[in-house]
Design goal:
With 313 residues, this protein is of the alpha+beta class. It has helices at 2-14, 21-32, 42-58, 64-83, 97-107, 114-125, 133-143, 182-189, 237-245; strands at residues 205-213, 223-232, 254-259, 262-268, 271-272, 279-285, 289-290, 305-312. A 5-stranded mixed sheet has the order 2-1-8-6-7, with helices on one face. Bound molecules: cobalamin (B12). It comes from Elachura formosa.
Amino acid sequence: SYYQYGLGVLALCVHHKRVREEVIRRLLTAQNHGRFGHGGTAVDTEAVVALAFTCLERRRLVGTGLAAELQAAAHGASRSMAEAQDPDGIIGNIYSTPWAMQVFLATGTCQTEPAFSQAMAALLKNLEAFGTAATMAQVLPVLHGHSYLDIASMQCQEEPGRSWGQQDWAQHRCHHSGWVSPLVMLLADMLTPLDMEPQAEVPGNKMVQLVVECPLPWCDEVQLYNRSVHVPAAASLLDVLQAAAVLEPHNFKFHTQDTAQGPFLTQVLGLEARQEKRNYWQLLTAPNTPLQMGVADYRPQDGETLILRLSEW
Ligand code: B12
C-alpha cells in the first residue's frame, strides 16, 4: 500500500539512506493524482508520505528541483489536513490525528496553524482511546512535540519510567505556541497500555446481534449468518466471536492473525480475506458505521448489531 511505501521511504530517509529519484517521483505522482483514496486510512497515508517528503527535502537527499516539488507537496498535504479538520479538532479519526500533527510539526506549520492546537486539545480529551502499544507509538512523539523525523537523532536518557523527552521539550519548535507544555508531558506519561490494567469487573450480561455479510462478486448470498449471542457485559468483539463459535450447531467459525496492532480478523465461516484480492473482513456497527478499533479492543453495547463484511480496500 502507499502507506507502507511512504513508511519505507521515511525509514530509509531518517537513517540517511538515498532512494532512487524514480521511486520518489512515483510517490509524488500518486499524491498529485489523489491516489491515497478517500476511505478511512487516507489521512494516515497522506501524512506518512508528507513526512517522507519533508525528510528527503530537509536531509538534502535529493536534487534542488525535486526538493522544491517535495516541499510544495508536503505543505499542500499539511494545508489539506488542516482544511479536513472537524469542528471537534479531529483530522480523519482520532488515530490519524497524531499523524496529521506530526506533519504540522515537521513542516513547521504548527506555530501558525490553529489546527495544531485544536488537534492537541482533541487528543488530550481522548487520551483513553490510545490503549494499545501500536496506537501509543503513534501519539507519544506528538505529545512530546516531536515527529518521526526526530527519532533517529534523539538521545535516550536513562531515567526510570521515561526514556526520552523531559528536558528537550522546552527547546522544541512548537513550544512557543504553548501547546507542548509540561502538563501535556505529564498526561503523556499517564498513558497506560490497556492490557497492563486489570479489566474492570462489569456485572451482568449483554446481547449482541452478530451478522456476517459476503456481497458480490465473492458470494451469491449477501447475508450468511445472523444470530444473537449472549456474553458477559465487559466482553469484547473477540469474546463475542468466541462465544458464537461454541454455540450449537457449531456453524460459526473464524480465524485471526496476530499483528503489532493486535489480532486481525482473517477468516470467517471458512472465507479467507486475501491481500492479493485486496479484500478484508471489515468490522461495522449497524446500520453501516465502520469500527475504529480491532476485534480485541472493541466492546459492543448491549443490544448492538455488529456486522462482519467481506469488503474491498
Ligand atoms: C493499510 C491499513 C489497513 C489495510 C491493511 C491491508 C494492507 N495490505 O494494507 C486494511 C484496509 C485491510 C485495514 C483494515 C482495518 N483497519 Co487498518 N490500517 C491500515 C493503515 C493505514 C496502515 C497499516 C500498515 O500498513 N502499517 C505498516 C506495516 C509495515 O505494519 P504492519 O503491522 O505489518 O501492518 C499490518 C497491520 O497493521 C494490519 N492492520 C491494518 N489495520 C489493522 C487494524 C487492526 C485493528 C489490526 C489488529 C491490524 C491491522 O494490516 C497491515 C498490513 O498487513 C493503518 C494506519 C496507522 N496509523 O497505523 C490503519 C489502522 C491500523 N487500521 C485501523 C482499523 C480500525 C482497521 C479496521 C478495524 C477497520 C474496520 N472497521 O474494519 C480493519 C481491520 C479489521 C480486521 N479484519 O481485523 C486503525 C486502528 C486503530 C486502533 N484502535 O488500533 C488504524 C490506525 C487506522 C485509523 N486511523 O483508524 N487497515
